[in-house]
Each structure stands twice: as structure tokens, then as C-alpha cells.
Amino acid sequence: MWCAFSKWLNTILPRVIMVVVIATIFAGCMTLPPSASLNPPSNRSGPIDASAWVRHVEITDPEMSDQERKKQLENTLTNNLLRFLRDGKYFRKVELFPGTLQSEDFILQFQFDRYRQKRYTKALYSSDASDLSATLVITHPNGQLVKEAKADINEEHPVAPLSPEAALPSGMGARTQVIEELLRKALFVPTTGP
Amino acid sequence: MRSYRLLHILIISILLSSLSGCAAFRSGETQPPTPWSISKEPSKQSISLLITGESSVNGTRQDVPQRMIEVWQAAAEKAYKDSGFFSNVKVGAAETDLRAEIHFTDRGEANSGLAFLSGFTMTLIPANAQGEMVVKTALKTKDGHALGTFEKKETLSFWIQFFLIFIMPFNWPNTVVTEMLYDLNRATLDQAYGAGLLRSQHVTDRQWAQVMQ
User: Fold this and answer.
1) Contact residues on chain B for A162, CB-CB shorter than 8 A
2) Which of A21, A22, A84, A194 is the most exposed place for a label (fewest CB within 10 A)?
3) What is the ipTM of this complex?
4) Could you say which of B60, B61, B65 has the minimum Cβ distance to residue A35?
5) Any idea where the domains of chain B sit in the sequence?
């Protein structure tokens, strides 16, 4: 018995240690299925005295090839944006398009041409990265363009090994930041003419 | 021969150590299922469900995975379809007579130290976590007029311990959570129907305008 243990100690254990060391040094990158959660809004500028209607969000990122997943994500993001705009008191009233619109109402169309989330792992360190690019187009019901704004973010933050985020990757901060920037540019930054 | 036996022992040890039992138990705050009320409406209305949700662990807000939203959505959709109160149930933005804005709040409390200890002892020492699910539903007309708001909640206990392996088939956490989500939506619908909010005469635009005058 001791002989077997001694053999294990001398031959197998060093190999196990070597594999563990190599595995911890190895760096990896994993594309994560993105989610659509948002942090609570931090708007202090509103509300605008008008009704707004949120159109179904569009994600046109070519890296998102699974159409069913994309559709589900668009639905969730649309619902979350509706709630976000209401909680942030950006407008007097916010509803989901379609509905009975008045001529002075605003229609908000959010479009994401990059919607990516990755996790990088190296040794005992890991980080979550978000790469987002979006456009907000605001029109009146007759199609007249009110404002168009663009925003993007490429953000990476460390993830503590024993934190809840280690199990549930998060891109909430970056998503919220992009959406708040779009709304700030479209609603509260005056247009500068040529 | 000896190394072969050692390999067997190693494999059995690994298999035994990977065995653990886990089970979930409901607090029972939601009323037990009763037969659905029978809708006597001559013409039922259509409804669309807008699902949102948030999740927190030990008070820290978490990103809700899309898969989780889909589980919540499926439970709500099934309850609304099973009820027989509606002519059509759609998910997402759609032109329907009614709209249900359903917000799920999932709060979890866990002791990571105890979880580590449990894992370290191959789950002989039990680990426990508490979960609370709140379902808040705002029923609206298609133009956004609020008809009523309902809030239902229930708490869950999750346990991990080696010998729970014998209880696991009867209290498998996924099954318990799915049943609870369905029941919370069902309780909401029962209350809304009891309050007369799912009857068509309350929600036509013209009549709504008359009510508001």
C-alpha cells in the first residue's frame, strides 16, 4: 500500500501539479450570451412634457447569428427600456408602440449594431468585457425626424473569484451607460447648427 | 494489478464525491391550486405579456441571464393560456385588447462560507440559501390606462446535503421553482378575475372615457 502511495507521490503528483499550473497560466476568452438587464436610471434632467412611445429594439450585430435568441433578447431589452424610461422620468408618459398616438408624441427607436459580451480569464484573474454601439432615432408619428444620437462603449472590469458575478457575468453597467448617453445626447444636449 | 485496483478506488471515490443532494421547499404563501374560474364572457379579450425582471444576491443587484427571463416568461404565458380568460395570449409588444406588465423580482440570500464548507466536506455539512420571488403585475388597456396592480410573493428554501439525494426526485429545485412561478401568476389572474377586471365591458376605450368623465 505504502509502495503504491509512494509511487503516486513521486510520479503522478508532480504531473498533476504541472497540469494545474499550466491550466492557471493559460489565458482564455469566452463569448457570453449577452443579457438585457439595466441598472436603475440616474436621470436628473427630466421629465420632458410629452408622451413617448418605445418601438421594438433592433439588434443588427452580425456576430449574433442565432435569430431566435436575438428576437428574445430584443423583446427583453424593449421591455426593460420601457421600464427604465418610466423609472427615470424622462417623459411625462412612456408607452410601448403601437398604440393611439397624438401628432406631437415622440417615437423612440433604439438600434444596436454591436452588442457583445466576453469573459477573459488568465490565471486566477478574470474580467467581463462589453462592446456596445447604439443609435437612438426620435421621430414624430408623421415620420419627421426630431433627433438622432449615437453612443458606444468598450469597457472591461475585473471579476472577483468568489463574487456572485463570477457565476453570473454582468454587462449591466456598460449597457446602462450607453443608453443614458444616448438619451442625454438626444433629449438634453441642444443641437448645434452649422 | 495493484495499480488497476487503485484506479478503481479512485474512480469510485470521484463518483461518490460528485454525488450530492439538493432540494427546494416552498413557504406556501400562495394559495394551493384550485380549479380555474369559468369565464362566462361572451367575447374574450386578447392580452400581451411584457416580462421584465431583476435579481439580487445578498442585496447586490445581478445581471439577469436571458435564459432566466425566458423561464419566467414561459411560466406566465402558460398560466395566462391555461386560464381560458383570454381569446389570445401574446408575448411582447402586440396589438391586443389588454396588456399585462409583469415584473419579477428574485432576491437570494446565501452564506458563501457555509457553501464552501459544505463543498469541502463533500456536502456532508449542509448548505442553505433563501430565495424570495415577487411577481408584480400591472393590468392595462391597450392605450395604457391602468386597470389594476397585483403583487404576489413566495419564499423558497434551498438545501444541499448528501442525504437529500433521496428527497431530490420529489423536490427538484427547477420543478419547485417552475410550479411556484406558475402559481404566482395564477393567483394574480384569479384575483384580477374576481375583481371583475378581465370583463370586456371595463376595458373598451369608449367606456373607459365614460368612466373617466
Assistant:
1) 112
2) A194
3) 0.81
4) B65
5) 44-108+131-154+173-212
